[in-house]
Amino acid sequence: MSDKIKMIDLFGQYKKIKKDIDAGIQKVIDASAFIHGPQVESFENHLAQYLGVKHVISCANGTDALQIALMALNLKRGDEVLVPAFTYVSTAEVIGLLGLVPVMVDVCRSTFNIATDSESIKKLEKALSPKTKAIVPVHLFGQSADMSAILQFAKEHKLFIIEDNAQALGSKYFTMDKDGRKKTVGSYAGTMGDIGCTSFFPTKNLGCFGDGGALMTNNDALAKKIRMAANHGQEVKYHHKIIGCNSRLDTLQAAILDVKLTYLNDYLYARYAAAQYYTKMLKALDSGEDFFETPLESEYSTHTYHQYTLKIKSISGKKSTRDALRQFLADKGIPSMIYYPLPLQKQEAFKKISRQGTSLDVSAQLADSVLSLPMHTEITHKEQDAVINAVKEFYSL
């Protein structure tokens, strides 16, 4: 059984909707409108309706989405952008690519997102300079950052907000009433800042069969600028108003995404159910032993479990417990992943172009302790039991 366990099962997901996917692809081939075909606009409109946002502008990939968002804000070379140190490289990569300065800030140990408790907000304020123009909260591993605190912080300090929502599409953020209860209507992650960005990389919550991305905004002027920036800086062909780039979602991918969007809630439910099973069984295994921490679901966000990530605690006298567990699982044919083994402040690429805005101790600690288990829409309890039993065996040695 264990040799069949996959980190993600894309083919199994495809088989269930093969008829609809194949029909969508064939329709594109029959029309041969492979670029800017009608399916692109259809998908953008349907995703905008799903998210409750005015504008969705598709592009070639999630990294391009982040770059185009920054381009649309008219930032100047040397301007600074606050970014969490514990995230995928593209979040900060595009900042450096445009001649801006990534300012690394720390994250919350329990949620993996930008820390926003009162002490952390004070640290964020100390990280500001006259050149700080924007903040990029990342909704990591499937749940929203604390956007109420970030929105307030950005408003007070006149910062743009670009949400990196590559891993939490479909997650909802709930503001709390004065009694600490969730309000009945939540906003989708990626729709609360000035611009939201997402990726349709095949393994994402909503993934295509190649690369793809999109930007979301409720600002009409920004939407217009984003469309121009993604299309060589032009509104009318061969008339270029600004310097842009060439970043578009091809029609085949849009057709695939338009089909899969109708199943997105089912996918999110399957991920959540799998995560609940993991948590129930792993907590029983870890009862009183303190071997690891299962993921925390914050009170203000739903969790889409793009990843199911444990924090592995080191055992006295045993080096690199996380790495030892990962190798033990691998020896049994069970995949796992470390997202991310090096925080941004330790990456060679950023040493000369970034600055440290706050203490980054938590980001460094997480890089040494996180381990993500197999998680996807098709995973079965039998497969999860094989993972759980392997973890149990490791800790019984």
Write the layout of secondary structure elements.
Layout (H helix, E strand, L loop, with lengths): L9 H7 L1 H14 L6 H14 L3 E5 L2 H11 L7 E5 L5 H8 L3 E5 L12 H10 L4 E4 L11 H11 L2 E5 L7 E2 L13 E2 L6 E5 L13 E5 L2 H11 L3 E3 L2 E2 L10 H11 L2 H23 L5 E2 L14 E5 L8 H11 L23 E2 L4 H7 L2 E4 L7 H16 L1
Parallel strand pairs: 2-3, 2-4, 3-14, 4-5, 5-8
Antiparallel strand pairs: 1-9, 6-7, 8-9, 10-11, 12-13, 13-15
Helix pairs in contact: 2-9, 3-9, 4-5, 4-8, 10-13
Describe this protein's structure.
This protein has helices at residues 10-16, 18-31, 38-51, 62-72, 90-97, 118-127, 147-157, 220-230, 251-261, 264-286, 321-331, 361-367, 381-396, and strands spanning 55-59, 80-84, 101-105, 132-135, 160-164, 172-173, 187-188, 195-199, 213-217, 234-236, 239-240, 292-293, 308-312, 355-356, 370-373. The chain folds into 2 domains: 10-261, Aspartate Aminotransferase, domain 2 (3-Layer(aba) Sandwich); 264-396, Aspartate Aminotransferase, domain 1, CATH 3.90.1150. The relative contact order is 0.18. It is globular and about 70 Å long. The chain contains 13 helices and 15 strands. Helices cover 39% and strands 14% of the residues. It is α/β, with parallel strands linked by helices. Strands 1-9-8-5-4-2-3-14 form an 8-stranded mixed sheet, sandwiched between helices.
